[in-house]
From TrEMBL:
<keyword id="KW-1133">Transmembrane helix</keyword>
<keyword id="KW-0472">Membrane</keyword>
<feature type="transmembrane region" description="Helical">
    <location>
        <begin position="21"/>
        <end position="43"/>
    </location>
</feature>
<feature type="transmembrane region" description="Helical">
    <location>
        <begin position="63"/>
        <end position="82"/>
    </location>
</feature>
<keyword id="KW-0812">Transmembrane</keyword>
<feature type="transmembrane region" description="Helical">
    <location>
        <begin position="102"/>
        <end position="123"/>
    </location>
</feature>
<keyword id="KW-1003">Cell membrane</keyword>
<feature type="domain" description="DUF202">
    <location>
        <begin position="11"/>
        <end position="90"/>
    </location>
</feature>
<dbReference type="Pfam" id="PF02656">
    <property type="entry name" value="DUF202"/>
</dbReference>
<dbReference type="InterPro" id="IPR003807">
    <property type="entry name" value="DUF202"/>
</dbReference>
<dbReference type="GO" id="GO:0005886">
    <property type="term" value="C:plasma membrane"/>
</dbReference>
<protein>
    <recommendedName>
        <fullName>DUF202 domain-containing protein</fullName>
    </recommendedName>
</protein>
<dbReference type="InterPro" id="IPR052053">
    <property type="entry name" value="IM_YidH-like"/>
</dbReference>
Length: 126
């Protein structure tokens, strides 16, 4: 081991754990969006299977769109988390680490706007 170079093993491991946590978050978002889209398709098929031609489907068809938006947000979170991981890795190696609040601000803003959108959507479909 080179004694001139500082050992940043614990910092790299913490950076990787943080990245993996963001990956789990993005996978959960994409999974939730996927389930929402599939459930919407399932609800549209019920009247066809039951052969109930006079059944009124109260859903306005926005569930699929909401699900797709959630999948896109999950993919964006995944992309930003990798960029943040890679930048932190470089900063740790260069011994110039500083906090980066822009990533957290972007993700928090996107998820907050998504939650407002979902609340609005749910209140309109009660």
């Amino acid at each position: 081991m080179n004694k001139d170079k500082p050992n940043h093993t614990s910092e790299h491991l913490a950076n990787e754990r943080t990245f993996l946590a963001w990956m789990r978050t993005s996978i959960a978002l994409m999974g939730f969006g996927f389930i929402l889209v599939k459930f919407s398709l399932f609800l549209k098929q019920i009247p066809l299977v039951a052969e109930a031609k006079n059944t009124v489907h109260a859903q306005n068809g926005h569930s699929s769109l909401v699900g797709i938006v959630i999948v896109i947000v999950g993919a964006i979170v995944l992309l930003f988390s990798y960029i943040n991981y890679y930048n932190n890795k470089k900063r740790i190696n260069n011994n110039t680490f500083y906090e980066n609040n822009i990533f957290l601000l972007i993700v928090t803003t996107v998820l907050f706007l998504l939650s407002i959108f979902l609340i609005h959507y749910l209140l309109n479909n009660i």
